[in-house]
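Q: What would this chain look like folded?
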Amino acid sequence: MENPLIVSAQGLRKSYGSHIAVDGLNFEIQRGATFGLLGPNGAGKTTTISMLVGLLHPDEGSVIVGDGSSKSNGTAGNPVDDSVRRLIGVAPQSLSLYDELTAKENLEFFGQLYGLSGGRLRERVQWSLAFAELEDRQKDRLSTFSGGMKRRMNIAVAMIHEPEILLLDEPTVGVDPQSRNHIFESIQRLQKEGLTILYTTHYMEEAQRLCDSVAIMDHGKLLALDSVPRLIAQHGGCSVVTCELGRLPEQVELPGQLDGTLLRFESDRPLEKVAELSGQGVQFRTLSISQPDLESVFLSLTGRSLRD
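A: My prediction, written as C-alpha cells:
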C-alpha cells in the first residue's frame, strides 16, 4: 500500500500579465518521500514553490497540503491557512537568518514565531543546534559563521517547529565540501525518520542521489515526472563509450567514428560491444563508459543544460 499524499497540486496556473509562469501543473507528493523539482531559470519553479507555501494564490487550480483536515476560514489543506503553514518548514536559497543574532537567538526567535515557548522551545533549540552540529557555536553571532555553517543553520531554523514537510531550495549553494557532506548526511537522516522533503537544486547528482521522484519543468509546464531510474531509462539515451585504440586489425567494422586512435560510440549494451570488439582482436589502451544520468534526461527533455 502506498503512503498517503501530503501534497497535491492540481491544474496550477499563474500568470503575470501576458507571461504565463506556471501552466496547468499537476503533481502529488507522498508522505515520507523526497521529491525533486528541477528546471532552468524561468521554468516556473519559484512561482510553484510560492504557491505551495501560500505566498502566492494560483489563478487556477488548487494546492492541498497535509491531510486536508484544517477547517479554519474554510481553507481545508490550503497553505494560506496558518495551521497548514505550520506543517511546512522552508529553507530558502536566500538565507533567512539574522547576522546580528547568535545561533541560539536565531533559533529562539523563529521558534517563537511558530508558537513555541518555555521548555518546549528550549528542547527544540537544543535539538536544532545538535542537528546542525553547532552546539559549540551557539553563543556566537552568525556574522562570524562561514557560508556552510549558515546553510546548516538555515536548515536547522526550518526544522525548529518539527514540520511535516521540509522545503529545501538550493541547500548546498556556495558551501565547502565538508558542509556539503554534512548537509547530505542531515538530509539522509531526515529521510530515514520519514520526513517529506521537497528539494530543488542545480546539481543533478544531488537530485539523482537524494530524490525518490523528480519533476522536470520548463516554460511553466511539467515535462516529465517519475522515479529517477525510470526517467533515465525512458529519456536518458544510450551509454557513451570513449576509448583509445592500440592494435586495430584490418576489416574490423567499428561502431563509431575513428579520430586517429580515438574511438567514440553510443550503445545500449556497451560492455557487450566492447567484448565483441576485443574478440575481433581490437586492443584498448584506455576505455571509459559514461552511463546516462539525470543530466542526460534534462538535456533530452529541454534541449539545454540546467545552468543555461
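DSSP finds ten helices and 13 strands in the chain.
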